[in-house]
């Protein structure tokens, strides 16, 4: 009687564990010289999109893994919202991605590394969280309001529009 065959080696790319796929996407980011963060979007048990950091390779400061995954998932779903989806990311989302996630409205978010872990490798987004807490006049980025009445014209036109898509 021969010994039972060993199970085949499991490739992270072959598993259906979403966080493992997010880790694989993070490794891809690292291989391309990017901060190693990866994300996947899952719906009904299916991986519908994978994203990874591509900030420096695309000269796009918004191309974080979560934003990349959200953009791709919304294209797949032909929707501006991720109804019934779960987002898995290898790291706790930064404030920008967290905002994008709230706008996309997935059902749940799962993450592995914490923002403290990210800060420890030089990817410190805590300062943005700190800035949000401050009054405008105390922030490091100068912001000044003007021409409000002029801008309100297009807001009023939108408010009056009968066939608009709210979100
Ligand atoms: Zn981010």
Describe the structure.
The chain is of the alpha+beta class and 167 residues long. 41% of the residues lie in helices and 16% in strands. A four-stranded mixed β-sheet has the order 2-1-3-4. A hairpin with a 2-residue loop joins strand 1 and strand 2. Helix 3 runs parallel beside helix 4. The longest helix has 14 residues. It is globular and about 50 Å long. About 5% of the residues have low confidence. The protein binds zinc ion. Zinc ion (ZN) binds next to helix 4.
- What is the structural class? alpha+beta
Question: What coarse outline follows from CA principal-axis ratios?
Answer: globular
Tell me how many strands there are.
Answer: 4
**Regions with little confidence, pLDDT below 50 for 5+ residues:** 7-14
Kindly state the mean pLDDT as a whole number?
A: 90
Biggest beta-sheet profile: 4 strands, mixed
Tally of individual helices: 7
Compounds present? zinc ion
Round the Cα radius of gyration to an integer and report it: 20 Å
Distance between the termini: 65 Å
């Amino acid at each position: 009687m021969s010994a039972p065959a060993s199970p085949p080696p499991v490739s992270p790319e072959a598993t259906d564990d979403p966080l493992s796929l997010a880790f694989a996407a993070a490794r891809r980011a690292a291989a391309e010289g990017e901060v190693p963060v990866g994300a996947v979007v899952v719906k009904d048990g299916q991986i519908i999109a994978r994203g990874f950091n591509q900030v420096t390779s695309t000269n796009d400061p918004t191309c974080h893994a979560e934003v990349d995954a959200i953009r791709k998932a919304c294209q797949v779903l032909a929707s501006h919202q991720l109804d019934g989806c779960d987002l898995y990311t290898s790291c706790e989302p930064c404030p920008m991605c967290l905002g994008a996630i709230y706008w996309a409205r997935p059902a749940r978010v799962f993450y592995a590394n914490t923002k403290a872990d990210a800060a420890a490798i030089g990817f410190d987004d805590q300062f943005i969280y700190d800035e949000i807490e401050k009054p405008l006049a105390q922030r490091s980025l100068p912001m000044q309001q003007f021409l409000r009445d002029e801008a309100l014209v297009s807001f009023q036109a939108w408010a009056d529009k009968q066939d608009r898509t709210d979100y």
